[in-house]
Amino acid sequence: MSEVNQQPPAQNNNQVAQTNNQQVQKREVSIVDMTLNRIQELEKAEAMRIPPNYSAANAVRAAALILADLKDRNNTPILNACTKESIANALLKMVVQGLNPMKRQCSFIAYGNSLVCQREYQGSIAVAKRYGLKSITANAIYDGEDFAFQVDTETGRRKILKHESSFDSYGGNVKGAYAIIEMEDGSKNVEIMNMKQIQAAWNQGPTKGQSPAHKNFPDQMACKTVINRAVKSIINSSDDADLFEDEPIQAETPVTAAVKQEIAENANSASGSESIGFEEEENVQVQNHSQQPEIEKQEQVIEAPVKQKTPF
Amino acid sequence: MRLVVLGSSSKGNCYLLENDTDTLIIECGVTINEIKKALNFSFDNVAGCIVSHEHGDHAKGIVDALKVGIEVYTSRGTMRALELDVRHHRLHTIKEGEVFNVGPFKVMPFKIEHDVAEPLGFIINHPECGNVLFITDSYYVKDTFKNIHNIIIEANFSQEIIEERVRNGASPDFLRNRIFKSHMSIETCKKTLLANDLSKVQNIVLIHLSDGNSNATQFRQIIQAATGKRVYVADAGDVIDNFNKTAF
User: How far from each other are the two terminal CA atoms of chain B, in whole angstroms?
Assistant: First the structure.
């Protein structure tokens, strides 16, 4: 990042920190505004849709607060270390998915000078809920517990037959985890992983399952892994229906508003006159067009003498 | 009497109000061949044809109808818009509020609200079907009506469905605006019906439902629930029997 490289090398630490701080604050403001403006532009042009019940402005400002405190591995503030474009892209990615960084639904990670927004498992649940997930519950299976499941040969869906836990076994050595998914349409599915599969998943991550969190809370981390796997297929196989549902009706256009007002004022209320129509017992004399006088055939039809005014 | 629906959409509108001896053709928005077929190739019973306005889906068959000898009744504004010869011997000028006879049918035209020259709605009287109110292509009507026994009324679109389609990009904005200012929504249809004395009404026929912006089942339920009457949604080919002044 250019500004980082341009730091004068021979200043005392205090001054450097101060300059950095000012720069961070300045960048924070400009990036937030830039991103929000960009979002507004995209929305206006209908090039992007933001999930309902999601405040993009709040999320972007929350992200800015978090980013202002974040430092990369060289202890450089992230807002200085990362390129403006990558920061804006990360924020945009957050907004497009409707994630809230304050709720730990996503986190920001600097890879070199590039900032990346990564969806956390709470975020995955939040997104999956927009796609019809009703609830998801995960449990770890510990050594000594009796666990059995079967696969329905017709639907291919798994079903847990038993999971007998005891207070002694609870919190022991984790041998696996499962997550039960219930969808809004009532369907259920179960995702099950044994420790070997979970470890394989952890090996994909940078800490290879060796972080303090993985070592101290393996059951919770295992649950997190199985939840991630369970919601992944819901999210990745979904359409964008959630973006089109439950939206408040678009603001009236001037035309439709005027029409509605016109109807409200004028419909079924012909001023000062009674209802029109034939009387119940008809003995009305009316002109017969088939015997029109010749004058009818010319332009003066309107003045034709035999016409009657109604109601009568 | 019976109401035969030859067309009830933007593709074409034409209704036959008939019994075994008298036929009134309402709207002429289908080809003369379709009318001929529906009449079993005999115009003997046809008293005439009334046309509400000049749009093709209501008037495209007029020239051919005149050629085969059908008396056509429509407003001067409609004739001019269609560039018809107003002196044609089978073409009759009708005006808002001026009652005329078409054979045994008596017709009272009234003004409706559509984006054309001189659109008209009709109250049609015949001893057998009583007074039939006919409203189409009107985003609302100013009048209220009395002594009505049967109603044929447009329920073109649902505001909800149309807004939804505009949001999804399925329907352009300008089209929504045009429809709002020219056709009757199910919401306005319901209000219009309820603004009138429906105590004598036997049948309500909903017509001219838009292909994309309506839902026949839902519309029927809405009007049935609001009025408690027998409600039909007209579709090309339908025959509604018992279109009478009384239930029996």
Answer: 11
Q: Could you report the per-residue pLDDT of A134-162, keeping only the tens digit for each?
A: 999 999 999 999 999 999 888 888 889 99
Domain ranges of chain B: 2-240
Q: How far apart are CA A159 and CA A289, in angstroms?
A: 80
Nearest alpha carbon to residue B137 among B72, B92, B181: B181
Q: Cβ contact (<8 Å) for A267 and B192?
A: yes
A 268-297 residues inside an 8 A Cβ radius of B: 268-270, 273-280, 282, 284, 286-290, 292, 296-297
Q: Enter the ipTM.
A: 0.85
Given an 8 Å threshold on Cβ–Cβ distance, is A310 in contact with B167?
A: no
State residue A78's pLDDT score: 84
Task: Give the 3-state secondary structure of residue B230.
Answer: strand
User: Could you read off the pLDDT of A204-250 as tens digits, one per residue?
Assistant: 877 788 888 888 899 999 999 999 888 887 887 776 655 554 333 44
Contact across the interface for A277 and B131, Cβ inside 8 Å: yes
pTM: 0.54
Contact assessment for residue B134 and residue B121, using Cβ atoms and an 8 Å cutoff: yes
Residues A80, A113: Cα–Cα separation, whole Å: 9
Is B98's CB within 8 Å of A308's CB? Answer: yes
Range B2-240: architecture per CATH: 4-Layer Sandwich (3.60)
